[in-house]
User: What shape does this take?
Amino acid sequence: MDKRIYWVAMNLVRGIGAVRFRTLVEHFGDPETAWKATPEALYATGLPAQIVDELLKVRTSVSLDAVWEQIEKDDITLLTWEDEAYPRRLKQIDNHPPVLYMRGSILPADDWAVAVVGTRRLSSYGQQVAEDVGAFLARNGVTVVSGLAAGIDSIAHKAALDAGGRTIAVLGNGVDRIYPPENRKLAAEIMERGAVIADYAPGTPPDRNNFPPRNRIISGLSLAVVVVEAGKRSGALITANFAADQGREVFAVPGSVYRPGSVGTNRLIQKGAHPLLAPEDLLDALNLSMVTEQQTARTVLPANATEAAIFGQLSQDPLHVDTIGLQTNLPIEKVSATLALMELKGMVRRVGGMQYVAVREAQAAYLVDVPDEERKK
Assistant: This one.
């Protein structure tokens, strides 16, 4: 049996999230050893007794062979922290899920993704904006991420598909249980040109307590979050808060001060979110105007020691090419040529006068790929 079944096993235990999962793995070395540990050894980890009791209960009541058989039957793909295919943008956030369940596929191109979320009680105005934003992003090679909920989420997914693009739906239940049921056809279409994913084990039913935590995955997969319409207590505002905490950009669509569905978005703008006046604002603010070229450049021009040295000098404060050359001890011609390639890859942005800044989202994403020995050269 595949060793990843022990990641699933831990995921079946209520109360073991990313933090406690990491604690167990660090203590025992791997999920399998933790799963098979004696009660005494488990209690010695310092986990709350009720969590250990729950693990022991699940261990005696669940057939892992049956669980794995069902995963294979439902054609569910598992992605763990250790898998190369695990979305690297998501891996950058705090407490990213130890294991993801997926039906469909996530591609390297999905690194260029924007979340489009909002209320279930949408207006005709919200519907039009969600359609326009979803279709615009898809036509420009940007993957649309949302939560498959009725309302704005569903409209955004459909718009991306209708425009020939890719989209990812993040569920608050097992990927073998599509919710709401009326979106089963939409979910099937998403699996063909994107993915339906969750960090809840197969068989997990929809539960109102599951949806707020899953919103961190929606924002974690994305460069930015667009809130189209949201009431005062909309779940979309939770996604926006996660995005802000994760260092993602937040955009909100302004609306009438008399419309309940615009209370949340207007307040987001009041607190500092970017007002989205047109879909093009996303391409400008996120340097997405050359997505296709960036995707190609990432494929054929991987990060190297020169890029790492240059990128290490950059921040959100503009730095002149000459200064970069002095700080890296590299010839100006090489610095200029490398910066041109890095701009194509979406790592840096030129801000005029031969000055450059780092693209915030690129920092961890690219440097993590450069081998230590390369960085030391």
Notes: The longest strand covers residues 99-104. The chain is about 45% helix and 10% strand.
